[in-house]
# Entry
Amino acid sequence: MKLQLQKFTEFANRLLPHETAYLLAVQRFQDEDRLAIIKRIDANCHRIDQFEAYDTSIDKRKYNHLQNWIEHALLAIDVDARFAWMNAMEQKIMTDSIQLDEEKDLLKQLRQYEHPAFYFTKFYELVERYRQFLLIRIRYDDFNACDDFLKRFEGAYHRSKTVTNKMLEATKDIVGQYAGSASGSIHWEEWLTEVFYDESNDGLNRYLALVRLIFISFNYGRFDILRDKFDYLDEQFYLGKYYSKRLLLNYYNNRLLYHSHFKEYEKAVYYGYLSIRNKNHDFIHYVNNLCAVLLRLERNEEALDLMKKASPELKNTGNMHSRIGFVSFYLEALNKNKKYKNAESYGDTFLQAYAKEVLQYRWHLFFTFYLEALLHRQEFGKILQTNRYYKLLEKDRAHQNKANYLPTIPCYIDIASYQEGLLSRKKLLEKWSELLQPEAHDQGKTGGLRTLIKQLQAMVPEIINYLPNIRI
# Structure
């Protein structure tokens, strides 16, 4: 395969299913070769583990033409590209450096505006800046066009700002509950749903409402509230609305979480691989979620290989929540591939460098897999020392109100205490006979309890095998 076609293949492999479906819907090609190429792009794009090579007998100039057409067609509907354009125009207006052709473009956008745009408030504020620019230069005709626009949409602008401000209030409660610092957020569900479905709202506020509903679904384990929203958004993306590659990748990641909750793991993996087809600011976060599903499916080598390939991207993220999540799942992948010594060493190194951040962000996830590695390494004294130093049992008690809580860390510490002779067999049986009952937890957690008990059975069969009244 020649270099030119290799470059086209690399370009096509980065496209996403909703992009190619939209392109097929809007194309008007008369040339059969171009149509055949885009249909093959679409077919390849919808697959994860299959690929059909492109026809090298077709004139390579047609591939170049098609790539240019695709880039232009997607750019024309890309809301993030429009946002970048507005930022550039604002800077040029504020610095008196806007050129005549740029002004013509801005005025054209003003005349052709269709409400509500995704970044409506940003465009409204850009027109405000431009109106000032025009007035001081005594350009009344263009000033009047801007003034008419601003008066026409003044009410909508103030409404959008009000929604944005209220969104901040909702976010404080929702993220606060997710982080364990607030008591509840379910009272925001109805309002956020109204914002999402109200097509008179700007696209940004509607999408922000959906993101917060996703957080609420995590807070309460209620992913059922997302089904109709995802179906609606899926249709909008196919129509080319609210499109940007960033938003599509985020949507695919959220679909992974949704299908994973309903144990539709193959669908979750499919969307997970779509979410990492392009690298962006949230790439590591998306890799984390995909690997979590792969590990749940016992596709352990695949998960470890994926994380090794993604690890260089860690240096590009300043998000400690994602970084610690990545390290935690990497430890799990090492454990599941029986590389316990590697997991212990990697965990030690990371903990020495980022102990403060681990405790601040994702301590429960990290220590779950770190302690598991130590158990397999029979480092029982080290487990007890780690518990004392970081007060893990104390922190775990405060963690029990989480929707997906399982007593993993207390059980691991109990095993270490038992193996060190600090906890009798009888006492351990008494503790676990109550701790490991499904009735002590949400009934939806029985799958997680089953997995935990299976792990404990491998570690201390003399306890689990004689534990009375275990019903999973």
Observations:
- The chain has a mean pLDDT of 92.
